[in-house]
Amino acid sequence: MQNALLALLLTSSLWVMSSLPVEANDTISIESKQLADNLLDQLHQDATDANWDSYFSLYDPKAVFLGTDASERWDMEQFSGYARPTDGWHYKVKSRQLLQFDNTIVFDELLESASYGLCRGTGALQLTENGWKIVQYHLSIAVPNEDAKAVAKLIGAK
User: Fold this and answer.
1) DSSP single-letter state for residue 103
2) Are 105 and 36 in contact (CB under 8 A)?
3) What is the pLDDT of residues 135-145, one digit of tens each?
4) What tens digit of pLDDT does each residue of 80-89 get?
5) SS percent in the chain: helix, strand, coil, step 5
6) SS3 (DSSP) at 81
7) How many alpha carbons lie under 13 Å from residue 11 in its C-beta half-sphere?
8) What is the CA radius of gyration of the chain?
9) CB of 79 closer than 8 Å to CB of 52
């Protein structure tokens, strides 16, 4: 009797688990990949050209930009105030990975900058009624592991 009950519970558990939605879709559709790549490529081109109206149109109005400094968590109004007076910035995309979760695409990209060297951009795109929009972008400087302790000391680690 116990073996039959255990087999029923195990079978039921496996059936329930197999019916749960897959969390991430490793096989992002060709169309979604192209749209996401185009949007992010346009973002970088607009930043290079200081084409701020186009640049900020790629973000959702409620988006957040996280900069390289710990104090840089900006809503779009704050980020626009920072960016618009500048002549822009240039990051060359070295690689990009995309992962789709229903109507959200998360991404990470390795970027090369003359000012900061190797950087990483990560973020999320959300499918809205106006198409894909950036809802979060995070820029970080890629610190090699062998230099991490020295950098940590520079920013106050003990």
Assistant:
1) T
2) yes
3) 999 999 999 99
4) 999 999 999 9
5) 40, 35, 25
6) helix
7) 6
8) 21
9) no
Q: Are 52 and 46 in contact (CB under 8 A)?
A: yes
* Other residues' Cβ atoms within 10 Å of the Cβ of residue 135: 17
Q: What is the mean pLDDT of residues 60-74?
A: 97
Q: What does each C-alpha distance from 112 to 14, 54, 101, 133, 141 come to in angstroms?
A: 46, 22, 27, 23, 10
Q: CA 127, CA 109: separation in Å to the nearest integer?
A: 20
| Distant-in-sequence, close-in-space partners of 60: CB < 8 Å, separation ≥ 6 | 126, 128, 133, 134, 135
Given this model, what pLDDT does residue 26 score? 60
Q: What is the pLDDT of residues 12-46, one digit of tens each?
A: 333 333 334 445 556 789 999 999 999 999 999 99
Rounded Cα gap, residues 139 and 70, in angstroms: 11
Adjacent-strand bridge partners of 126 = 104, 133
Q: What is the pTM of this model?
A: 0.81
More confident residue, 17 or 58: 58
What are the residue ranges of helices labelled H in the chain?
A: 2-19, 30-49, 52-57, 76-83, 145-154
Longest dimension (CA), the chain: 76
